[in-house]
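Design job #97: recover the sequence.
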């Protein structure tokens, strides 16, 4: 079968019949999004990789639990990822330091961080770091809607499907999450503005 043009359902059916290439195609197609979600939720590359592998182990061993009548395979896999992320965070209370470099696949800098002047790349890097820390500091129910809607750019409907809640709940949580992010980022922005003022003063001294 042509794995590149086959739908998720067709690949899943082939995988169940023992087609290893179909499983590999599903992995190539869905792994990046699952990994980014896990990374943006927990902040650890190692943990995100573990969770991603766990998700596909579930797909291999428990594919029969997927019900196409309840939603897409993509939403099913993301829901499994969410379950594993929350379980690991609750079990380990694991919040890593954000000293790691931003993931190349992460879109947080594009979605939440305002652009700064081309001569101030350091400030832009610090702003990205501040946003990543702020997202990680959100309560889990608010963090996941920011990650899914703002960072993964999923629709309210897709997010509601993954979280198993109403679209109105997604909207209200996202509204609250964005308000919390603004509050968390305000001190960093004020400090950055003060720092820029000092730098400008030095330039003309």
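Job complete. Output follows.
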């Amino acid at each position: 079968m042509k794995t590149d043009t086959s739908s998720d359902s067709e690949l899943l059916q082939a995988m169940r019949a023992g087609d290893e290439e179909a499983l590999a195609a599903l992995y190539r197609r869905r792994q990046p999004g699952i990994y980014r979600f896990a990374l943006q939720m927990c902040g650890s590359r190692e943990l995100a990789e573990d969770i991603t592998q766990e998700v596909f182990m579930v797909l291999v061993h428990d594919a029969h639990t997927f019900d196409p009548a309840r939603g897409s395979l993509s939403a099913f896999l993301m829901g499994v990822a969410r379950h594993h992320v929350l379980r690991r965070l609750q079990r380990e209370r694991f919040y890593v330091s954000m000293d790691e470099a931003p993931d190349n696949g992460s879109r947080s800098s594009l979605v939440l961080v305002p652009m700064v002047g081309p001569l101030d790349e350091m400030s832009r890097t610090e702003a990205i770091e501040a946003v990543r820390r702020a997202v990680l500091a959100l309560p889990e129910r608010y963090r996941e809607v920011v990650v899914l809607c703002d960072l993964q750019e999923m629709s309210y409907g897709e997010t509601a499907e993954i979280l198993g809640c109403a679209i109105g709940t997604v909207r209200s949580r996202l509204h609250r999450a964005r308000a919390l992010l603004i509050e968390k980022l305000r001190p960093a922005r004020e400090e950055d503005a003060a720092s820029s003022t000092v730098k400008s003063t030095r330039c003309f001294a």
